[in-house]
Write a structure and sequence with these properties.
This protein is mostly helical and 79 residues long. The protein has two domains: 1-39; 40-72, no CATH class. Helices cover 67% and strands 0% of the residues. The protein is built from four helices and no strands. The longest helix is centred in the N-terminal third of the chain and has 20 residues, at 3-22. The mean pLDDT is 83.
Length: 79
């Protein structure tokens, strides 16, 4: 799989998830805000789970994966 195909698949899945979770209008607002504010994903990500323990985070991830198996890439290694 080429990088362009992988990037396209990730973007398509991400947009689908944003639309499903936020709705079409809110999804567009989210994207416009990120583009407009020169959003620093790395800085934002560093504080995203600061109030969760590692066990809580792993537990939440396991629950999500169980409830949404379609979001797991076919080549994912699950431990």
């Amino acid at each position: 799989m080429t990088n362009n195909v992988q990037t396209s698949a990730i973007m398509t899945a991400g947009m689908r998830l944003l639309r499903e979770y936020l709705g079409s209008v809110e999804c567009e607002i989210f994207i416009a805000t990120i583009k407009q504010d020169r959003f620093d994903y790395t800085e934002w990500r560093e504080n995203l789970y600061e109030d969760m323990s590692l066990d809580d985070l792993l537990s939440s991830a396991a629950v999500y994966m169980k409830e949404h198996p379609e979001t797991i890439p076919p080549n994912a290694v699950i431990i």
